[in-house]
Amino acid sequence: MVANDDGGDTMTRAIAAKDVTESGLDQPQAAVSATKSATPVLAGWRTEDWVATILGFGVIAVILALFAFKAADLRNAVSSFRWTTDAQIASSTPGWNAALDGVIAEAETKKQQNVVALGTNLKNALAGNSRKAIETEAGKLAALGSRSVAGALGAEIRAHAAATADAKIFTAENLTKVLYIGIGFLLVAAAGIALLGRPVVPFVLGFPVVFALAFVARLLAGNGLFVDWGIEYVIFALLLGLLISNTIGTPEWLKPAVQTEFLIKIGLVILGASLLFMEVLQAGALGILQAVLVVFVVWYSCFWLSR
Questions:
Q1: DSSP for residue 166
Q2: Which of 26, 42, 80, 229 has the fewest other C-beta atoms within 10 Å?
Q3: What is the helix (H) or strand (E) element at residue 99, kind and residue range?
Q4: Domain range enclosing 155
């Protein structure tokens, strides 16, 4: 009987311990379940990829509607960021004169007296150091067409001569265009932030600073030197971001507006509209095959490097 009582007590203690253990394990699981149920679950389409795609196509649809119904001239919304200093024009003049000498010599061989006269007039304007005169004479040479060497050279010189910061960038008209673009992008991005369930007010407060940094990047990249070198504004945006993050750091109040990946996704969708269907057809089967191969190689290379 004693053995049986000990055995019964042992069994009772084991069952009690099991119950305590199971109840202890159930409490964290219940807490996790409660946390999951309390976390808002977005709908399947309310992700960055889908929202960026929807907003991008929405922007494209609005632009097409404005163009189709001629409700607004979208060319008036294009702002200018290109500028060239007088010193840069002076330093480029010897190279332009050498190129003009070659154009004039070739034109004399082909008995193209109009090209000879235009090239000579442009050289005289370059010697006078008057940007307005250089722009005028270069424009006449550029009228020959970009497919000719003379026309392409004239267009290049005219673009540099006309690119003055005070007359092209820091004007009320141009800055108003920049402001309109900023407001439009703010509305689109804020709508996306709201659809993603993120706080909109902190994003709106920090967006002007992000847009101002983008303006500075475009302004730096618009210098004639960097235009000739083919350095895009993305490089300057990257350098500005690295400078800020490695010096003063990104302020906490600004972080809600730094939605880098989301903004890039919207831009990529809109950028895709530049690839017109007719251009795809003109490229033909070999062009399409080349595009597919390039995309596959780039994607696989990036995927391999990221591993």
A1: I
A2: 229
A3: helix 86-109
A4: 86-162
Q: Tens of pLDDT along 63-122?
A: 888 888 887 777 778 888 999 999 999 999 999 999 999 999 998 998 889 999 999 999
Q: Quick one: 145 and 207 in the same domain? A: no
**pTM for the whole structure:** 0.70
**Cβ atoms within 10 Å, residue 251:** 11
Same domain, 184 and 69: yes
Alpha carbons within 13 angstroms on the beta-carbon side of residue 27 total 5
Q: Cite the DSSP H helix spans in 110-199.
A: 113-128, 131-142, 149-162, 172-195
Query: Which residue is associated with the tokens 């050289």?
Result: 123
Q: How far apart are CA 112 and CA 179, in angstroms?
A: 47
CB 199 within 8 A of CB 117: no
**End-to-end alpha carbon distance in the chain:** 69
Residues 153-171 pLDDT 10s: 999 999 999 998 888 899 9
Pair 169, 232 in one domain = yes
Chain-centroid distance, C-alpha 291: 21
Question: Which contacts qualify for 119-124: CB closer than 8 Å, 24 or more apart?
Answer: 119/150, 122/154, 122/157, 123/97
CA distance 237 to 218: 8
Q: What is the pLDDT of residue 208?
A: 93
